[in-house]
Amino acid sequence: MKILNVLLFLAICGLSFMSTSLLADDNLKLLAAYQADQEARSEENLKNGNFPIYSDEMARRLLVFEELVNGRISTAADFVHAAVILQHTNLEHVDKKLVSMGNENHLLAFYLAKRAAELNHPDGRWLMAATYNRYIENRGLSLESYGVAYSDGELKAASKDISTADRTTKGLPPLPAIVYERDE
């Protein structure tokens, strides 16, 4: 009987965990914000000189923070939507180039993308590379040295000479499961 109670307890705990990550519904407010973010960056809008509006960008950014602290980002899709929104905020168009007004959003976007990858979202690992590289670029570090590429489902270091210790010394998060290219 004790074994049955322990198994029942573990099953309930397991279902509780699954309900917050695997079985939860996507956050519809976050989905709508993500769709608005994508529309603001549509090829047609950008071609016509219609760039994202700062106040809209900040509203989406604040929504991500609110949903995050209230525990309402739980599915793989939620993590991707939040990461993409943060990847795009805190940027200004200066001389036809996007310039970061602050880099913390890009770092948080990396961690959100990492969680999406852990939850097996098909875009998670690609988004990890994109957010990591945006963070590096806006830190003023060399993409050729510290950047990563996404290829064949793997994150690949731009330089085999940069170790995890080198990354952390520069204040960069270590990257999980990076394939270091080797000279043939």
From TrEMBL:
It comes from the Bacteria. Keywords: Signal. The keyword Signal applies. Residues 1-24 form the signal peptide. This is Lytic transglycosylase domain-containing protein.
